[in-house]
Specification:
about 200 residues, about 40% helix, globular, alpha+beta, 4 strands, single chain
């Protein structure tokens, strides 16, 4: 059922004439809880959680765009080559052959390899002003697609319906389409983390 709703919604967004059909984006895209986003990062993108106090990432969290330490609820290292190729667009979907059957077997990173991995990895910082819902994030690294994933996880705001936010609404719709093409939209909407 979710898949049909997603296909219809994405098709309506692509065509300028959606035959008057309106989608309740606020209902379809509520803000995700931190643990739901963490589940996606850990299980779908093979991210490893790093304590925010870890000295090796201190310089990353010192970036002027990074959230305040007190708001940070999780820091994740995404280092897997196949996942990084997916996040940069070299691999288009989690359903593709290249994603499901990588040429090299991916190995788990060791503590001693962490320093090296930080140089090539994508670091995702999840933050919240209310301790439960993802309200902001920070990404360090060269991956292009995580912004779209996390924007969809932040959810739809009714403010986007006002004319002054028309560009933001178009960007949100574009993010939905990108995440759908990546094969992650259904996972985000119907996250099976088991968290309530």
């Amino acid at each position: 059922m979710i898949t049909q709703k997603i296909r219809g919604m994405c098709e309506a967004m692509r065509t300028s004439n959606s035959k008057g059909k309106k989608y309740d984006f606020a209902k379809l895209f509520p803000p995700k809880r931190i643990e739901e986003v963490a589940y996606i990062l850990e299980h779908d993108l093979n991210g490893i959680e790093i304590p925010k106090e870890d000295e090796r990432i201190k310089y990353i969290l010192a970036d002027s765009y990074a959230p305040e330490m007190k708001l940070i609820k999780g820091v994740y290292l995404i280092y897997n080559k196949t996942i990084l190729e997916f996040l940069t667009g070299k691999i288009h979907s989690i359903n593709s052959y290249e994603f499901k059957y990588p040429k090299k077997k991916n190995r788990k990173i060791s503590e001693t390899d962490m320093e090296y991995a930080l140089d090539m990895a994508t670091i995702v910082v999840l933050a919240s002003t209310n301790n439960k819902i993802l309200t902001t994030y920070f990404i360090s690294g060269s991956a292009e697609k995580p912004n779209s994933i996390l924007n969809v996880c932040i959810g739809y705001s009714k403010d986007l319906e006002y004319d002054e936010y028309k560009a933001s609404l178009q960007n949100f719709k574009k993010d939905i389409e990108i995440v759908s093409q990546m094969g992650l939209l259904e996972k985000i909407l119907g996250n099976d983390s088991g968290a309530n």
